[in-house]
Amino acid sequence: MIHVVIAGARGRMGSEAVKAIENAQDMKVVAVYDYKYDGQHLHNGEVREDGQGIPIYTNFEQLAQETTPQVLVDLTVPQTVYRNMELAIEHGIRPVVGTSGLTNEEVDQLTTLAAAHEIGGIIAPNFSIGAVLMMKFSQMAARYIDDIEIIEMHHDQKVDAPSGTATKTVDMINEVRTSKQQGHPDETESMSGARGAEVNGMHIHSVRLPGLVAHQQVLFGGEGELLTLRHDSFNRGSFMPGVLMAVREVLAQKSLVYGLENIIE
Amino acid sequence: MIHVVIAGARGRMGSEAVKAIENAQDMKVVAVYDYKYDGQHLHNGEVREDGQGIPIYTNFEQLAQETTPQVLVDLTVPQTVYRNMELAIEHGIRPVVGTSGLTNEEVDQLTTLAAAHEIGGIIAPNFSIGAVLMMKFSQMAARYIDDIEIIEMHHDQKVDAPSGTATKTVDMINEVRTSKQQGHPDETESMSGARGAEVNGMHIHSVRLPGLVAHQQVLFGGEGELLTLRHDSFNRGSFMPGVLMAVREVLAQKSLVYGLENIIE
Amino acid sequence: MIHVVIAGARGRMGSEAVKAIENAQDMKVVAVYDYKYDGQHLHNGEVREDGQGIPIYTNFEQLAQETTPQVLVDLTVPQTVYRNMELAIEHGIRPVVGTSGLTNEEVDQLTTLAAAHEIGGIIAPNFSIGAVLMMKFSQMAARYIDDIEIIEMHHDQKVDAPSGTATKTVDMINEVRTSKQQGHPDETESMSGARGAEVNGMHIHSVRLPGLVAHQQVLFGGEGELLTLRHDSFNRGSFMPGVLMAVREVLAQKSLVYGLENIIE
Amino acid sequence: MIHVVIAGARGRMGSEAVKAIENAQDMKVVAVYDYKYDGQHLHNGEVREDGQGIPIYTNFEQLAQETTPQVLVDLTVPQTVYRNMELAIEHGIRPVVGTSGLTNEEVDQLTTLAAAHEIGGIIAPNFSIGAVLMMKFSQMAARYIDDIEIIEMHHDQKVDAPSGTATKTVDMINEVRTSKQQGHPDETESMSGARGAEVNGMHIHSVRLPGLVAHQQVLFGGEGELLTLRHDSFNRGSFMPGVLMAVREVLAQKSLVYGLENIIE
Asked: What is the pLDDT along chain A (265 residues), one digit of tens a residue?
C-alpha cells in the first residue's frame, strides 16, 4: 500500500485524484497539504471539522512526521509547485507533479536536489497515457518515415494554435528527424495558409470547432502507405490512469524524470 | 440499348470509358470521333485497318448519319470540347462531357443552343459519384450546422493548394451559408498558418504526403457533436460509374446541366 | 417570439431544454406542465413558492387558457407522452416530442387526431441534427453506391449491439436499397463473427470500449473510391439545437411528422 | 556500396526490388539467381543475350565465386526459399527474405545454421514499414491500455477474414496482454456477429468493400480517451522501403531475425 499526500486536493484535478487513489487497491491518501484549513479534514470533497476524512496540514514538517507519506502528488499551480517539490524531496518524499509551468532552470535545480537526496520523482506536463504513447510512437516512427504532418483539433474556445501537445510532439520528433523540405518544391497556395504552419519542413494544421474536445493525429506518409497515430481525449478523466501509473512507477525511479514518455518502455 | 459515340477514345480516360461502356449491359459504343484514322477501327485500344472493332470517323456529319448515336461522351481536351458539343447538339445527340475547362460564357452559349434544340446534356467537372455526393451533402449540412472546416489530403507531387475539389466544395457551401467568423474571437497563431486558409470564416487545410492519393473530409461541429463527410479516391477507376450514370440520366434531361450533383436527388 | 410549454422540465433533458429555449432569442417558456407543484414556479431548475420563475400547472385546461402556448415540448416518459400529445392537439398546441417509445398504432392515432384539428407536430426519436443528417445522407447515398458497411462505436457500458441508431440507419437504407450479397461469394471466417452482423447483404460492426461516447460511420465502397459518413456524439448537449429547430419548424408543419429527417431538405 | 544478389528478379515483387536497389545510392544488384537463363543478363526487366544488364546464374556456387555478393534478397515462392537461404548462409551471404511460407521448424533449422556460420539474416513476412510499426506500437500500447479492438478493412475480393496482419497483430498483443473479458458483462447481440470475432476478450472486425485496398486500425480505449493506430496500404510500392532497410540492417545482425519489428528500435 503506497502512502500518498496530495497538494491541491480541493481543486478540480486534485479532487478527482483523491477519488482515483482511494479507488485504487494498492495506494491510499494519508494527508492533504493545503495553505488553509489546518487540522480539519477532507471528506468526499468537503472540508469538515468533525474529524472524519483525510487530515489537512498547512505545515509540511508536521505532515511528514505524523503521516510519513512516500509520494507527494502535486496538482496545484506553477507558483507553488517548486517550493512543494523542494519540501517533498528534502523529506524523502517522491514528488509526482502535473504541471508544464516550471522553467528549465527550476527543473535543473530540482533534478540536482533529487540527486543529492538520492530520490526519484516525476514531472508530467501531460498525464494522459494515450497522448504520451502517441507522442512517443511519433518520435519512434519519425526515425523510419520522415514525411510527417500533424492535424490537431480542439473546441473553438481554445485561443492559441497550435496546441501544446502538437508543439511538444514536434519537439520530440525534431530530436530524431533531420530538417527536410516536404511537399512539391514548387508548391503554391492559392489561399494563404492552406498548407498550415511549418517547422523544419513538417506541416501542422489546427482545427477549431464547437463540439470537439481535444484530438490529434500524426500522419506519416511513405511510398504507397500512410501511418496515422491518433489520440482523442474526451474528458479529464483521461488523466487519472496516468497519475496512478506515475505514483507506482516513481518508487522505482532513481532520479527526477521529466515527461511520462520516459517511464514508458 | 443506348448508342454512344466517344471522343477522346484513345486517351487514358477515354480508353477506360470504352471498356466501361462495353461492359455495361444497357449501352454500347457505336462510333469513335477522332481527328485522324478516318475509316479505321479501334479494337482493344489499338487502331486496326482490318475492319475489326469500333469505326473511327473524322467527319461528324458522316458519323451521325451512319451510326445514329444518342449520346456523345467527350473526354478530350478543353480546346476541342466546345466545338464537339456544338456538333452533337446540332445533330440531336446529347453530350456528356467531363471537363472543367469551359468558360462561364461558353457554358451559357451551349445552354442556349441545347434549349433551342430541345435537348439535354451534362457537363461534369468531376465524374466521381462519391466526391459529388460528399460535396452535395456538405452543401445540405451547411444549412443546419455552419461551423465548418475542410481537410483535404493529396500526394506530395500536387503543386497547388487547396485542391480543386476543396475550392468547389467551399463554393457550394457558400451558396447556402452566411459568412461567419469561426473559432475564438481572440484566436492567435504561435506558428503562422496553423489555422489554415480562410474563406468567409471557414478554414481549409491542405495535407501533402507521399503515399496519399486524393482524400477530403468536411467537418461540421455543433454543440456536443461532430459530423464528418469524407471521400477517399484511390484510383481513376472511380470516375467510370459516374460516366455510366450520366449516359443513362442524360436521356431524361431537358436542358444542359452543369455538375453531376444536379442530377442526384 | 414563440410561446412554449414544457412537460418534463425537471428532468435531465427537460432542464437543459428550458435553458436552451430561454437562451434563444425567438422563443420563451411560458409554462411548465407537471404532475405536481401546481401553482408554484420553476426558477433555475428549482421549484419555488415565492412566485419567481416559470408557472407550473398540473391542469392542462387551465394552463392552455392562462398562458396560450403555441408549442408543447414534451421530454417526459413514453407512458405520459401519448396523453400529453392528445391534450396539446385538442387545444391547438403543436407538439414537439422526443421519444422512441410510442407504438406504430399510437403514432397513427395521433396523426389522425392532428389532421382532424388541422395542426402540425413533430415526433423525433433522435434530436441530434448531426445524427439525423448522417442517416438521411446514408439513405440518399445508398441509391448510388450499394456496397455498404456500418461501424458503430460506443462506451463499454452499453449492453445491446448493434445500437438503435445503427438499426434505424439500416432500416432507412433498406427503403431504397435492393438486397444484395456483398463481399467475395466464397468468403470464409477463420474466426467466427469477424465479418460482423448482416442484413440484406450489408454488414454491421459494433465496437465497445471504455472512453468512447457514441460514434457511427457508414462506409460506401465503389470502384476506386470510398465515401464515409461519420457522426460523433460527445455529450447530450448535442440534442438542444435539434429541439430548437423543431420548435421553429413545427409552426410550418401541416401534419404530424415522425423523424427529424423529414423536415430536413 | 552493398553488393546484392536477387532471387525471383523476374517476378512482380522482384522486378520492383531490382529497380529500388538500383535507385538506392548505397547498394547495387551484382547478380540474379534464377532456375533458367544461365549466362544471359537481365536489363530493365527483360532477359537479353547481348551481355547488357545484370548477369543471371543458375549455379549458386559459381554466382558466389564470381560476384561475391554480401546479401541475398529472396522474393521467390515458399518452396524454393528454404534451399536458397541454406545456400546463401553456407556461402557467407546474409539472406533477406520476404515470405510467410516457412514452417516454424524450417525457421529453427535456418536459425541454427546461421548461428553455426556466425551470420545474420532477416525473414520478413511483411516488408511494409508502416504496417510493422503499427503492429509494434500496438504491442507496446497493450502494456498500458488493455481494452483493445481491431478493425481491418480490405477490398471485397479478399476471401478470408480476419486478415493475416490482424491475426499477427493479435498474436503480438497476446504476448504482453493478459486475457480479459471486454465490454459489458451482460452484453447481447440483437443481430448475430455484431460484436465481431473475439480472441482473449479482444474483438476483431473485418470490413470488405470494393474500392478499399488494405487498411487496419487498432483502437485502445481508456477512461475518457481513445488511442488509434492506423495503417493504410495503397499499393505494393509500400514494400520497397522495407526491403532497402532490411538490406542495410542485415549487415549489423548477428543472428537470424524473424519479423521486421525486431530490427526496429
From this structure: 999 999 999 998 899 999 999 999 999 999 999 999 999 999 999 999 999 999 999 999 999 999 999 999 999 988 899 999 999 999 999 999 987 788 999 999 999 999 999 999 999 988 999 999 999 999 999 999 999 999 999 999 999 999 999 999 999 999 999 999 999 999 999 999 999 999 999 999 999 999 999 999 999 999 999 999 999 999 878 899 999 999 999 999 999 999 999 988 7
Q: What is the ipTM of this complex?
A: 0.88
Of B220, B226, B233, the CB nearest to C225: B233
Distance CA(A196)–CA(B183), nearest Å, equals: 16
* Chain B residues within an 8 Å CB radius of D234: 211-213, 234
| CATH number of the domain bearing residue B84 | 3.40.50.720
Residue type, C1: M
Q: Is C228 on the interface with B (CB under 8 A)?
A: yes
Active-site residue, A154 included? yes
Q: Which of B17, B16, B66 is nearest to B38 (CA)?
A: B66
List subunits contacting chain D, requiring 3 or more Cβ pairs under 8 Å: A, B, C
Q: How many domains does chain B have?
A: 2
Q: Which residues of D, range 101-160, sit inside 8 Å of C by Cβ?
A: 147-149, 151, 153, 156-160
Touching check for D185 and chain C: CB below 8 Å?
no
How far apart CA C220 and CA B133 sit, in angstroms, is 11
Closest CA to A77 of A107, A102, A55: A102
Q: What is the pLDDT of residue C265?
A: 76
Indicate if A119 and A219 belong to the same structural domain. Answer: no
**Weakly modelled stretches of chain C, pLDDT under 50:** none
D242 and D230 within one domain: no
Domain membership of residue D16 as a residue range:
2-123+237-263
- Peptide bond before residue B162 is cis, with ω within 30 degrees of 0: yes
Chain D residues near residue A238 by CB distance under 8 angstroms: 222-225
Sequential DSSP letters for C193-231: TTT-EEETTEEEEEEE-TT--EEEEEEEEETTEEEEEEE
Predicted local confidence at residue C146, as pLDDT: 95
C198 and C216 share one domain: yes
Residue B236 pLDDT > 80, yes or no? no
Cell of B179: 459568412
Q: Which candidate from C160, C198, C211 shows the least CB-CB separation from D224?
A: C211
Taking the C-alpha atoms of residue A186 and residue C75, their distance in angstroms, rounded to an integer, is 58
Shared-domain flag, residues A10 and A114: yes
Question: Both B150 and B204 in a single domain?
Answer: yes
In the set A154, A168, A205, A215, the catalytic residue is A154
Q: What percent of chain B has pLDDT over 90?
A: 91
**Cα C70 to Cα A5: distance, rounded to the nearest angstrom:** 58
Segments of chain D scoring below 70 in pLDDT = none
Chains that touch C (3 or more CB pairs under 8 A): A, B, D
Same domain, A190 and A63: no
Residue B253 has pLDDT above 90, yes or no: yes
Facing B213 at nearest CB: one of D212, D234, D238 = D234
Q: Say which residue the cell 445500437 belongs to.
A: C163
* Same domain membership, residue D138 and residue D42: no
The alpha-carbon gap from D177 to the nearest alpha carbon of chain B, in Å, equals 32
Residue C95 CA, distance from chain mean position: 13
For residue A181, what pLDDT is reported? 93
The pTM score is 0.90
For B239, the closest chain D residue by CA position comes to D211
